[in-house]
Amino acid sequence: MNSARSDSILSVVLGEDGRVSHHVDQREGLERAQAIADLRVSASFAPVGFRGPFILHLSIAHGRLVFDVRDAENRELRVYALSLSPFRRLIKDYQLLVDSYEHAIRDGRTQAIQAIDMGRRGLHDEGAQIMTDRLHGKIDIDFETARRLFTLLCVLHQRA
């Protein structure tokens, strides 16, 4: 079972107070829920020097992405803060693609939907690489975990 692994995530709490704005639209809600579910099932998340499973409180504060890593009893282990600067262009581009995707779906443009979806995957991959690089030496993560964390960063950033 995932919760027995020392590199697993038991739960993810978004925002300083554990919530994301109540204005989260349906798409963001689905993306957020899927990313969190995927992290709970298959994350490879190993803060250097700690054994899990972990509870991750993820928020944006003072222009930084904050990883508040806690143990299974929700006791704070360590807080890591990453500058958002390396992610800003990707977050902006991602939001533009998401908006374009919604317009293409509404207009029924199948080819555009496929092209936009490929672009979104590319941005996710680039965001995941930056996430992995920025966490190097702090938290060991695999590529899929980094992709899910980038998704959550985009959701948090849209509501920050």
UniProtKB/TrEMBL annotation:
InterPro entries: UCP032146. This is UPF0262 family protein.
